[in-house]
Amino acid sequence: MKANDVILQTATKVVFFIIFLFSVHIFFAGHFAPGGGFVGGLLTTAAIVLLLLAFDLKTVQESLPFNFMIVVAIGLLLALGTAAGSILFDVPFFTHAFDDFNLPLFGVSSLHTAMIFDAGVYLVVVGSTITMIQAIGGDS
Amino acid sequence: MEFVLLIFLPLLAAVFVPILFKKLKSIHTGWFVLLVPVVLFIYYLSFLKMTMNGNVAISEIPWIPSLDISFVSYIDGLSLLFSLLITGIGALVVLYSIFYLDKNREKLNNFYVYLLMFMTAMLGIVQSDHVITLYLFWELTSISSFLLIGYWYTRDRSRFGALKSMLITIFGGLMMLGGFVLLSIMGDTYSIREMITNSAAIFEHEYFILALVLVLLGAFTKSAQFPFYIWLPDAMEAPTPVSAYLHSATMVKAGLYLVARFTPVFAASEVWIWLVTGIGLLTLFWGSFFAVKQTDLKAILAFSTVSQLGLIMSLLGASAVSYHVEGENAALFKFAAFAAIFHLLNHAMFKGSLFMVAGIVDHQTGTRDIRKLGGLMSIMPISFTVAFIGSMSMAGLPPFGGFLSKELFFTSMIALPKFELFNFATWGMVFPILAWVASVFTFVYSFYFVFKTFTGKKKTELLPIQPKEASLGMLISPILLATVVVVIFFIPNLIGKAFVSPAVVATQSDLFTHPDEVGVHIKAWHGPLATELLMTLGVIGIGLLLFLTMARWQKLYDIQPQYFSLNALYDSLLTFGEVGMNRLSRFYMTGLIRTYLIYMFSFIVLITTATLFIQDAFVVDMDSFAKINAYGVMTAIILILAVCMVLFAKTRLGAIIALGAVGYSVALFFVIFKAPDLALTQLVIETVSVALFLLAFHHLPEVKRHGETRKFRLGNFIIAAAVGIMITLVALSAHSQKLIPESISQYYKDTVFTEAAGGNIVNVILVDYRGFDTLFEIGVLAIAGIGVYSMIRLRLSRKENSDESK
């Protein structure tokens, strides 16, 4: 990438957080409005890809020092664990539970185990797409 | 307690072995392991009284109840005898291994884990009444013996031997599974006991012979019968305790067990008798003949095991004759069953001790090559005594146990021609003759083993280690076994009553219901003119002659060329498997992605359109089509234009941007038709993939147009058009099919809030209603990610490595 992309780089620093927050919003909103783990994960990926375009692979790798393969593994474990966890309560595999809770600050919130599963999906999507992008983009 | 669980005790103990090995370095792990077989042996001894009274014990735990599969432990005389052998010899072998394997140099944790795994597998085989679990344990012995034979996995020969034994025994096991499935269909049960009850119905069935041959293949490969014996000599690469255990006492006897156990099911058939007896005798002869050719101590023992297994197999075959004759003749064949089981017991004892002695010689002198050994008698007197007792028992001489069983063997083989069914009257004479010739060679190799090693000139200068007598610990096990060999000779009838007769009842269940009815009285002396005695005298005379003149006639073995042997056949089969199949796959795996895409797309088109037309599933229902508005028309035009741009783009950058335009217009379609979720996903995916293309742009080759011939482009055109048309057809008919009267979306609308408390149908479907789909989808995604990573990163790092090496 060109070294003197000052405008792109400065804008990216702001826009990245906007996209990222939006992706988080979309992820949480998923159960009632358009969104969910899959789209949320992709949006996060898009935000990181923007960073990659504005800066370069190495800078991004230094500022986001995760091994994205491990993110994939955690995501898979979360998803599988949610599905398998139901067995512990003597209900069929993949049975989800939900209820309303009165939480401080948030007020009455509806909490779902499906949410944890969705978080797994989110992590796998982010992890594997970034792994691929880093692998392909880093081939130089 | 359900005693079937005890089968798994060794496996449970195996869990603790690595911990003990790591934490308690100062104590040899074998001491802990030793407890397992000893405890089991004592426990199984408590069943002895029960089986002597002709009773059986059954214990069952369900495993997969929906498929009617359970672990059933069925203890009668036969399985008890085997269980005692497995645990008893197992205990001695573990004891021996404590002194044989050095605790500092060897990976004892691996060794004992495999050994315990094997013990469970063997106990499972002999006690299972359920054919499916029997098969399970059967293959577990193949796998654990593979691990044991390949224990010194850094040696090429070990790996070769392990692979060979596994390929052959697993091949047989799979065949056997087929036989079991057929049997369970014919007998309408998985239980061996019930199969025996239904044996008449099974005999009538058209698949009977097929099932018989398949089950026998399993037994023959496991018991190293001709022509499958070739794995056994190569399996000698295992550590000697393993050889003593697997290849004398247990695994190879699993095939014998199987034949004995299924005799009541198959005995009605003439094919069974001919095959089992014939192959058994052929193996006996073949193995004994080639044993004399070997120069490695363990190889001699391997061939001798092959031949002894053949002997027992032939006796088991002869015992099935008792199902066809009545009265006095039947009594003759009860000898055969008795002799088979008796010899099996004898063989486990003497062969176990001989293997241990071979190990001792190897351990104390550093070589097993018989040409370098000699004159060890004065240096290792105790080992010599043990080897002498074992060998003489193997040769069939008094006063050792082997003599008695060999006499019984002769009795049964002489009886066969008297049997006037199935052409035995004419061809039957072959059996006693073959048996006698094989016995001569058995005599020769027994002498060869013991006297070439322990007598003659001392050649200590040829030995890598200065020989001395082994430590007492290493000698205890073989001494105990050798003592049993002698004891058996003096109290054969007591042993027969306690161990052999109860087992015979299982093999000849139509003749006997109670062990006391067997009533075989073993005699060492048949009278001065008895055929058995004359045969034995002949064996001794000719055998001695052959042994003394060995150097002269051993050249005979060179006549057979190396390339014309079963081993060569096995090798060429393997080579064919590797080279031939490689060539075949290179023929269609060109390495070009476009070739693979052609395969995939043509098959998709073929299969899908064929199904559409065969099922007559193509329906177009114009009425249900949605109205198209101006936005739709405009988006469609943009879409078509973008697709054309992709086709005719001159540069790759242009193609990528046009492809992005196609994706965005599809997203627009989703917006127009009110699918915000899909639209959102599609938009983000398009963005990310275009960005990805741009990132990887640098590495993509230039678009080449001139290299493609007209013919190739025509082919591409046809495939592309076919895929397009097929997808359109499928989409149209999928839309028009109304299999359910109400729309599915209505169902989702109604239930999504009550069932999953969600407002977004798409998301609820993804995470809840079709959670499995999503789970596997992200699994695929993860695999794809790891795949891309490993393909690119590993290739890169390999390139770097090779750069450094330059």
Oligomer state of the chains in this structure: heterodimer
Which bin fits the share of residues in helices of chain A?
55-70%
Give me the strand/helix succession of chain A: HHHHEEH
What's the total number of strands of chain B?
2
Number of strands of chain A: 2
**Number of continuous helical runs of chain B:** 34
Biggest β-sheet strands, sense, barrel of chain B: 2 strands, antiparallel
The most extensive contact between chains is: A-B, 52 and 42 residues
- Helix count of chain A equals 5
Q: How much strand of chain B?
A: under 5%
Rounded to an integer in angstroms, the radius of gyration calculated over CA atoms of chain B is 35 Å
Helix content of chain B: over 70%
Characterize this entry briefly.
The complex is a heterodimer of chains A (140) and B (806). Chain A is mainly alpha-helical and 140 residues long. Helices cover 68% and strands 9% of the residues of chain A.
What is the topological layout?
The complex is a heterodimer of chains A (140) and B (806).
Chain A: H1 6-29, H2 37-54, H3 57-63, H4 68-88, E1 98-103, E2 107-112, H5 113-137
Antiparallel strand pairs in A: 1-2
Helix pairs in contact in A: 1-2, 2-5, 4-5
Chain B: H1 9-23, H2 30-45, H3 48-52, E1 57-64, E2 69-75, H4 77-100, H5 108-127, H6 131-149, H7 156-187, H8 192-197, H9 199-204, H10 208-222, H11 231-234, H12 240-249, H13 251-266, H14 270-291, H15 297-319, H16 328-365, H17 381-395, H18 401-415, H19 424-427, H20 430-454, H21 472-490, H22 492-507, H23 515-518, H24 531-548, H25 550-553, H26 566-588, H27 593-614, H28 630-648, H29 652-672, H30 676-696, H31 710-736, H32 744-756, H33 761-769, H34 771-805
Antiparallel strand pairs in B: 1-2
